[in-house]
Design goal:
mainly alpha; two-stranded antiparallel ribbon; transmembrane; Isoprenylcysteine carboxyl methyltransferase (ICMT) family protein; transmembrane helix; 17 helices
């Protein structure tokens, strides 16, 4: 949580500086967006790197063959990342276009620096011939390839391949919108501005988790869900499968909660507060991961922030937000439209219920998570609510 607080402080400070000095007008919103992202991440990254280097002195001198094998392995991934992003952008899948343009400019520098980085990191490894080196030897045809030996690396690399373009592309787009946003004291403008603000920081945390996963930073992936059901219910929430999700979730009207409630309605401010609280809870849940965020993987136990009270606070908050934001009962002209709206949101909630269950199935193989799950079952927010509302029933059980 300390890492998230440091990132948040940098993010807020930079936003204030951009506003005070009108930097967006001077250098443009695109460059301002990239400087905002880098300025938020770099200070915390350097502090974390210094801390980890103190724990990991030079202990070995890996051969050039090992460095070459790792370079081939990770270099191939970097090229596949460009190929996948370009393919998706050609189909018009957002936000891949924003990612591909930036990544194409950066890729030559990454490939140039890659051998030096790998040499620097490998000197601090107790076993320099790691999973990347072994895959590299296979790609160089120096060893036979057996899928079972490389499955773990391929799975966690696939997670990065699928999510890095989505997260970074969306981050570029939303930070540009945030910097161009015209703030005002109108309630809807404030809610929209705060939404951009929270979403931008949420995407910074998510992007960090995928881009900077590394043994050197001690936030590498330790396990990846290997089940088809786990991958399917997760990936349907993201491009390119998102189109299926959106088709089922689509409402028959475009009315939102503020079309239903006017500002002078006594329920307006309560509704606005609950909606705001829901996505604040969601973003705080993401922030709780710090440098460890990722879908479909296990890195370490997160039991701080909202996760201190619930195993799935982000999913709960998301669903509360969608039901209250879309008000499925408003704007319908007949029972069919009402049922269609309710069915769409029920589909959304069902997907996230299945995501929660498949994630638990994967994580329950780790003793830390088993103990955490037992603690939440007895001391979590829902358990406490049951004790409060049904004290006799709870005591009997």
């Amino acid at each position: 949580m300390k890492a998230a607080i440091a990132l948040f402080a940098s993010f807020c400070l930079l936003l204030l500086l951009f506003s005070w000095f009108n930097l967006v007008d001077w250098i443009g919103h695109v460059l301002s967006s990239r400087l905002l992202i880098l300025g938020t991440i770099l200070p915390s990254l350097l502090i974390l790197l210094r801390k980890q280097l103190a724990k990991k002195p030079v202990i070995s001198a890996p051969s050039q063959q090992v460095i070459k094998a790792k370079t081939v392995s990770i270099g191939s991934f970097l090229l596949l990342l460009l190929l996948y992003g370009h393919l998706m952008s050609q189909f018009g899948v957002a936000p891949f276009t924003s990612f591909v343009f930036e990544y194409l400019l950066l890729l030559p520098l990454l490939l140039l620096l890659l051998p030096r980085y790998l040499s620097f990191m490998s000197k601090r490894q107790t076993e320099p011939v790691d999973e990347y080196a072994r895959l590299g030897f296979c790609l160089l045809r120096q060893q036979p390839f057996y899928l079972v030996e490389h499955k773990a690396l391929l799975l966690k690399s696939l997670v990065k391949l699928l999510f890095i373009p989505i997260m970074l592309g969306a981050l570029f787009d939303i930070t540009e919108q945030l910097l161009l946003f015209n703030w005002s004291l109108h309630p809807l403008a404030l809610v929209k501005g705060l939404f951009f603000f929270g979403l931008a920081f949420d995407l910074i945390i998510a992007s960090i988790g995928y881009v900077f996963a590394s043994k050197l930073l001690d936030n590498d992936v330790k396990s990846t869900d290997a089940t088809l059901s786990g991958w399917l219910v997760c990936m349907i929430c993201y491009p390119p499968l998102l189109i299926i999700y959106q088709w089922f979730a689509r409402q028959t009207d475009d009315y939102l909660w503020h079309d239903w409630l006017s500002m002078d309605h006594p329920l307006y401010w309560f509704w606005a507060f609950i909606i705001t609280l829901s996505w604040l809870t969601y973003w705080l849940s993401t922030a709780s991961f710090g440098w460890y965020f990722s879908n479909l993987t296990w890195r370490k136990l997160i039991d701080v922030g909202p996760y201190k009270y619930s195993k799935h606070p982000a999913y709960i908050a998301k669903n509360i937000y969608w039901w209250l934001h879309t008000v499925p009962f408003y704007g319908v002209s007949n029972h069919y439209e009402l049922l269609r709206n309710l069915a769409g949101l029920t589909f959304v909630s069902s997907i996230y219920y299945l995501r929660a269950k498949t994630e638990e199935r994967h994580l329950m193989q780790f003793p830390e998570y088993q103990a955490y799950a037992r603690h939440i079952a007895s001391q979590g927010a829902l358990a406490r609510l049951k004790k409060l509302l049904l004290p006799n029933k709870v005591s009997q059980s």
